[in-house]
Every structure is written in structure tokens, then in C-alpha cells.
Amino acid sequence: MLVDYLCGYDADDNEGKEEDWSEISAEQISALIIAGDALGSDFPISSNKSGGGSDFEDEYSLEAQQQRDEIANTLAQRLKELDNWIALLCASLDVYLMPGKHDPSNLLLPQPPIHPCLLPWSHSFDTFHSVSNPFQIEIDAIEFCLFVELFCCY
């Protein structure tokens, strides 16, 4: 539904809907900025369980290898879904993707853009921009300076 709205599909088709949830039409949207954690805030899946053995046994056990394989498969699946979703949006508007804490980028600031090989279909569009964190841009004569917080101390 979000992709349809941002791309302008069904913008005037509000049959059977009593409420208009937005005053903004799709024609007024010129860009989408995804500011970190595009793969989800629950990724990567981590486990703090200790097997009761040594660190070496916990790191190189069959269970640890299976968990690493599961994380790699989940990452590949989520990257493919994200690539497809962004590519759909790139057909209609500019998309800016900033890395966050849970994205495949380093955690040192400034974070570099997400590598093109991870989102090959999206990178084939001129309207896709993988950007660093922090990031500064001017869109429609409005200056934006964006920063995705990586750590929060309580």
C-alpha cells in the first residue's frame, strides 16, 4: 500500500473510504529518505546464550555454525526484498538510503554508503542514491542534514 501511494497509484481511488488520512498527494512527494535500519531493527539476530563450555567451544560448535548460516540466509533474503522494494519506488521518485546500526555497514562514523553489490537492481536506477551517515542534501530548495544515531547511552 505504501509503495502504491508513493508511486501515485490509486491516489484518486478512494471508493468506499470515508476518511482521507492524508492531505498530501503523491504528486507532492519528490523523494524518499530511508534513514537507517532498512533491514529492520531486529537484525542481525544475536544470541547471548552461553553453552556452558569454553569460548572456543561456543564459537566453533555445530550450533554456532548453524546460527551463523541462519543469519547469513536471513540477511540475503532481507537484502533481496529491500532491493525489490526500493527498485519499485525508484521508478517514480528519488530514493536515498542511509545506513543505520543494523544495516550491513561499519559502525564507525561517518558510515559509508551501503555497497552497490548488495542492492544490484536498485543501483541500476539513476534515482537511487546510497548515501553516507551523516548526510546533507537540498531537495526542492530545502536543506536537510540527516544523522542516524547508532548508540544511545542511558
From TrEMBL:
It holds the Pfam family DNA_pol_E_B. Keywords: DNA replication. One of its GO terms (biological process) is DNA strand elongation involved in DNA replication. Residues 20-147 form the DNA polymerase alpha/delta/epsilon subunit B domain. One of its GO terms (molecular function) is DNA binding. One of its GO terms (cellular component) is delta DNA polymerase complex. It comes from the Eukaryota. Belongs to the DNA polymerase delta/II small subunit family. This is DNA polymerase alpha/delta/epsilon subunit B domain-containing protein. The lineage of its organism: Eukaryota, Sar, Rhizaria, Retaria, Foraminifera.
